[in-house]
Write a structure and sequence with these properties.
The complex is a heterodimer. By secondary structure, chain A is mainly alpha-helical. Chain A contains seven helices and one strand; from the N terminus they run H-H-H-E-H-H-H-H. Chain A is 69% helix and 1% strand. In chain A, helix 2 runs antiparallel to helix 3, helix 2 packs antiparallel against helix 7 and helix 4 (77-103) runs antiparallel to helix 5 (110-127). Chain B has five helices and three strands; from the N terminus they run H-H-E-H-H-E-E-H. The model of chain B has no long low-confidence stretch (mean pLDDT 88). Classes of the chains: A mainly alpha, B alpha+beta.
């Protein structure tokens, strides 16, 4: 009986529902891809609006899947308050960073740094519940490091987004964030499936 | 100091059962969890989990709330203050037991 494992699993249950991140990551990637293909003020918004609708639908389906298959855990009041505070802070900071990236030609990505910080906070939040090794819930830390690297490569003169045929660093970083969120989400989901296996009655 | 065997014998029998201990340990890390989650966590069947939860509820260590959500029965279980206290003390006893066992083993020259 591993007390730390049980408590960590319970306290981080909502974080481990990694499939929730897939629609978000797909949306980020798609919107970035769409932005590459469409230029100018007369761009048709049908595709991004349609994908956004599908993403919202997918999120609802995934939410229902986790509730029916794995159950629900209501976190402690402190955990809920912490999450709300972080979310409320993240949105304006992310918007500010997005605006800063579009308004300036910096040799780094501000929005990338914000996502890096968010991933690190997720990792710290997950590993603070009980004592864990560095590599517990490593996928969030790894995701953050990947985003950080891509955000800072321009500082050493590497315009990596051009290799992908992408015209701007901002779009490139958002595509990377989208992919990273999907991969980290899949890893988290595999973790939860292994931690809470279905046993035949 | 009692021997480890005596310490084990003094553990609360209601808590010192793997399924019930897992339930209480999980509930001590959250505000509540539903039946499905606890079933996945413990690997128990529906019937067996119900029995274990009932025992904990009778002892005043958990509370059980049943609701109908979207025409489905939903059972939420929360640990009581007494349950949290008992669980915390149990784990303290286990940790002390581990340390005493090492001391006892060294005293026995093993």
């Amino acid at each position: 009986m591993d007390k730390a494992k049980i408590q960590s699993l319970t306290a981080n249950y909502s974080r481990m529902q990694g499939l929730r991140g897939i629609p978000v990551g797909v949306l980020l990637f798609f919107v970035s891809f769409w932005a590459i293909s469409n230029q100018g003020p007369t761009a048709n918004l049908t595709a991004p609006l349609l994908v956004t609708g599908l993403v919202i639908l997918a999120y609802g389906v995934i939410d229902r899947y986790y509730k029916n298959a794995f159950g629900q855990v209501r976190r402690t009041r402190l955990q809920r308050v912490r999450e709300v505070v972080v979310s409320v802070l993240f949105i304006p900071v992310a918007l500010l960073a997005f605006w800063a990236d579009t308004a300036n030609d910096w040799p780094f990505s501000a929005i990338g740094l914000v996502f890096f910080a968010a991933m690190v906070m997720e990792y710290v939040g997950a590993t603070s519940t009980v004592k864990q090794t560095l590599f517990t819930y490593w996928e969030n830390l790894a995701a953050g490091v990947v985003i950080l690297v891509f955000s800072l490569l321009p500082l050493v003169g590497i315009s990596w987004w051009q290799w992908l045929g992408v015209r701007s660093q901002l779009i490139g970083v958002l595509m990377v964030v989208g992919v990273v969120i999907v991969v980290a989400g899949i890893i988290s989901h595999i973790r939860i499936v292994r931690a809470l296996p279905l046993r035949e009655e | 100091m009692s021997t480890p065997f005596e310490a084990i014998a003094n553990l609360d029998k209601l808590i010192h059962e793997p399924a019930r201990l897992a339930i209480l340990t999980a509930l001590s890390a959250c505000e509540s969890a539903d039946f499905i989650f606890l079933r996945r966590l413990t690997g128990l069947s529906n019937g067996n989990l119900s029995i274990q939860v009932s025992k904990l509820e009778e002892a005043g260590l958990v509370t059980v709330q049943k609701q109908i959500v979207n025409r489905r029965s939903n059972t939420n279980i929360s640990i009581t203050e007494r349950g949290a206290d008992v669980t915390r003390r149990y784990w303290e006893q286990i940790n002390a037991l581990k340390q005493n066992a090492e001391t006892w083993k060294n005293e026995q020259g093993g």
